[in-house]
Write a structure and sequence with these properties.
Layout: E1 3-8, H1 15-28, E2 33-36, E3 39-40, H2 48-57, H3 63-66, E4 69-70, H4 77-83, H5 90-101, E5 106-110, E6 118-120, E7 123-124, H6 125-132, E8 136-141, H7 146-159, E9 164-170, H8 181-192, E10 196-200, H9 212-229, H10 232-235
Parallel strand pairs: 1-5, 1-8, 2-5, 3-4, 8-9, 9-10
Antiparallel strand pairs: 6-7
Helix pairs in contact: 1-2, 1-9, 7-8
Length: 237
């Protein structure tokens, strides 16, 4: 595998935290890795999600390659781009990915928002996986309602010709497990027909990625929690 695209059922489901820890885990295992955030919105001075990925990967690549597009408006990439009179070019995204993958490096690509979030008139999140010729992993909340969101999203991926490697559920702060919790994974597997690789628990709050050393230390410590909670090896098979 040249890489993996991380898609979400929605925004705010834990994609960046999961992606950061997976990159840190793979780097600690000796794999040459890079992170990529093709488009980041809601940026002020720095694309903080992209910076988080770059720190976890130990990247020396310019941040403009890790994140080819960054916009100030906190909205879907298409809306944020149009607010600045810009158009997101798939060719530029593919070129940046090829630069990151050079030399056989494994590239983890975190998309913005959900799998159906618009990037352009004919481009949504799940199309990024097709653009880059990569399989995708779906990240979703470990909460009530996640079964339906996962099933619909995985079926949309299949209809678009995107290979889904499975689902990882993420527990978010302030969302305690309910009575439905033990049923989520088996129902997703039964109706989406993809494996659920684990549930990432609530983690200690990270420092800002602007504190590079502090953030790298948090990611490395938290990667051990990921490895105990999620079948990392299965994600790459």
């Amino acid at each position: 595998m040249r890489g993996l695209v991380v898609l979400g059922t929605d925004t705010g489901v834990g994609k960046t935290v999961f992606s950061t820890l997976l990159l840190s885990s793979l780097r600690r295992q000796g794999l040459a890795v890079e992170g990529m955030k093709p488009v980041e919105t809601g940026c002020d001075l720095q694309p903080l999600d992209a910076l988080s990925l770059a720190i976890a990967a130990g990247s020396r690549v310019p941040l403009d390659v890790v994140c080819p597009y960054r916009f100030r408006m906190p909205a879907a990439p298409r809306a944020a781009a149009e607010a600045e009179g810009a158009v997101i070019d798939p060719v530029r995204i593919r070129s940046a990915f090829d630069d990151l993958a050079r030399g056989g490096r494994f590239v983890l690509v975190e998309c913005a928002g959900g799998a159906g979030t618009p990037y352009g008139p004919d481009l949504v999140g799940l199309d990024i996986a097709r653009l880059l010729d990569l399989p995708a992993l779906l990240v979703a909340r470990a909460a009530l309602g996640t079964v339906g969101q996962c099933v619909v999203t995985v079926r949309a991926m299949a209809a678009a010709g995107v290979t889904c490697r499975g689902v990882v559920l993420v527990r978010l702060p302030g969302m305690a497990p309910g009575p439905e919790d033990p049923t989520n994974a088996p129902l997703i597997e039964a109706h989406a027909q993809v494996p659920v690789h684990g549930i990432l628990p609530v983690l200690p709050a990270p420092p800002s990625p602007l504190d590079v050393q502090g953030y790298r230390g948090w990611a490395d410590r938290s990667a051990a929690i990921l490895e105990r909670s999620v079948d990392v090896g299965a994600l790459l098979r």
